[in-house]
Amino acid sequence: MLLSPYATLADKVRMAVLLAWCTLVLSFLVLPIFVPVPLSVNSEAFFTYPLKGFSWRWYRDVLGSGAWRDAIWHSIVIAIGVTVLATSLGTLAAVGLSSPRMPARRTIMAVLISPLIVPVIITAVGAYLFYAPIGLANSFIGIIVAQTTVASPFVVVTVGASLANFDRTLMRAAAISGARPFVAFQRVMLPLILPGVLSGAAFAFVASFDELVIALFLAGPQQRTLPMQMFVGLREHLDPTITAAATLMMSSSILLLIVADRLRRRR
Amino acid sequence: MLLVAPLFVLLLLSFCLPIAALLARAVYDPTMHDALPRTAAALDGSRNQDVPDDAVFAAFGEDLLAAKQNDSLYNVAKNLNNLLPAARSHVLRTARGLSLDKPLTRAELTTLDPFWGDSQTWSAIRNGVPPFTTGYLLAAIDLRWTPAGGIGPMPPNQAIYRTIFARTFAIAAGVTLITLVLGFPLAWLLANLSGPTAARLILLVLLPFWTSILVRTAAWTVLLQRSGILNELLLGLHVTDHPIDLMYTRTGLIIAMTHIQLPFTLLPIYSIMRTISPSQMRAAYSLGARPFAAFRRVYLPQVMPGVTAGCLLTFILCLGYFITPALVGGPADQLIANFISNYINTDLNWQMAAALSFILLALTLGLFAAFARMFGIDRMKLV
């Protein structure tokens, strides 16, 4: 398929080199992310292979110890808050943006997407200095609002993409049939764009669940999240509980995003 | 239209406004002006750069005493310290020993602490007292207001920022280049395969893309240890006979950043390569072009927009890197974002953090505007 039927020896050599190169690059891309997985069930506290034996002890440490369990719990609470806020506001905004009568669409889109472009350190420092005097630093509300700003673009983009395939005459038909705008949205539009909404929600959840920098600035010890706990662990005392936590984080994100991707591609 | 309003307002209040307030700190800082109002008034108008006369000293004494009583003294000391290293202890010590029964004089204070008889001290106070200042922004590019009133270079021992910006640019450019070299052939292969193999291979690119930067940095922290897997592998293959230091080095940082950024460079190239029909290359061959000429003159011009988009995206994202340099880089590999964080958390120099943020944001938005102009904002999609 890649080589023409009349390939010369030189063509074949070139293709072999290319395939070897691509294999190396793919290995470089994929193998490192799976490195923590086997180490997380190693019975010894070493970071090298071969593994000495099988053990769940590091998972017991993560799921059993107070600090890690609290962190997981905080992360889930925050991520749910962010998902609800980002998905509802983001869907509304995407619907508004898709309206043909929307003025200044490009400018507004640029503002809504900008949290993806602005370096997150600036978002985090800005939020910290701004929220601290009004009592929103070291609070769940503060973290949820700040993370919503960086999670909402994902919802705007995915819902916007599914709205591109939505036939607006359906809304006119609903209106003619006597449905009020909210009913028309709920009964006609929402079911049709639901895959996009759900996939946006999954992206928003993962964006918050994996978020570190904003949490570092806005969370106090009472709100410490899973990424923060990992960051501190990586900086201060590197031990295999990190590999167990990394495996948990990675598998939950990948699982959710595969679901989101399936939803997004189903048109 | 009203539907956009809730998110728009939320973003204005919780994103745009805080960032505007942060950037404003780079040029507007009323702390010293508010805490030392009499000194500010007494200094006003005097263009003289020397140590001022008794009237200013008397005003300064009253201000210090008032500041001590309303708790703004510490902020004054902190701010002056940002302008003049080691000023903090002088301010605090002087204020502690101060009791006014008659107006403070120049002779009195300079014998108490010769620091106040130094023209550099008063130059710093003159620079710090006006609420609007360009000093921090200038400092962020290693310039300063000279005592003579012009703009000049920072003394070498304080001129650190150009090095940091240059380092950030160099690392971003290096990572961009490496991701391009690694990713371009792979993008071509993925774009020209079809069927289930292609779908599976694309998933292999997306898996790391979907794994958080922190988790991937954690994986590299484990891999790059002196007794880690990479060193074991290199020793086992006899590439080296002693473990190489990779953690806390530039090499380690670039490896980890390249791994994280590779999908960002690759995916835009891949999506544009998918649109190019293989029959074009066949046409070029049948017209007698050699493979290299056909690639250079037919294929490359068409994929260039994807290459530019991918590289620009990776370059922009690299400028703002924080987590990976903090965990994998050594002290000499910290980027702009790490310095911003340090100024907020360790040095409490918010103005300097704001000035560095200002420049980082200007660079990022400038590059992004170029990106948006070339490709439209819609290209910011996730694959």
CATH topology category name of the largest domain in chain A: MetI-like fold
Q: How many structurally independent domains of chain B?
A: 2
**Span between termini of chain B:** 28 Å
The percentage of residues in β strands of chain B lies in under 5%
What is the CATH class name of the largest domain in chain B?
Mainly Alpha
> What's the mean pLDDT score of chain B?
89
Our Rg estimate of chain A from Cα atoms comes to: 23 Å
Discrete helix count of chain A: 12
Rg estimate of chain B, integer Å:
28 Å
* Helicity range of chain A: over 70%
In angstroms, what separates the terminal alpha carbons of chain A? 29 Å
What does this structure look like?
The complex is a heterodimer of chains A (267) and B (383). Chain A has helices spanning 9-34, 36-39, 57-64, 66-98, 105-113, 120-131, 140-164, 169-176, 181-209, 213-218, 226-236, 241-265. The two termini of chain A are 29 Å apart. Chain A is built from 12 helices and no strands. Chain A is an all-alpha fold and 267 residues long. The longest helix of chain A has 33 residues, at 66-98. By secondary structure, chain B is mainly alpha-helical. Chain B folds into 2 domains: 30-131, no CATH class; 161-380, MetI-like fold (Orthogonal Bundle). Chain B has 19 helices and 2 strands. In chain B, helix 15 (278-286) packs antiparallel against helix 16, helix 16 (291-319) packs antiparallel against helix 19 and helix 18 packs antiparallel against helix 19. The longest helix of chain B is centred in the middle third of the chain and has 32 residues, at 161-192. Chain B is elongated. The mean pLDDT of chain B is 89. The chains are: A mainly alpha (267), B mainly alpha (383).
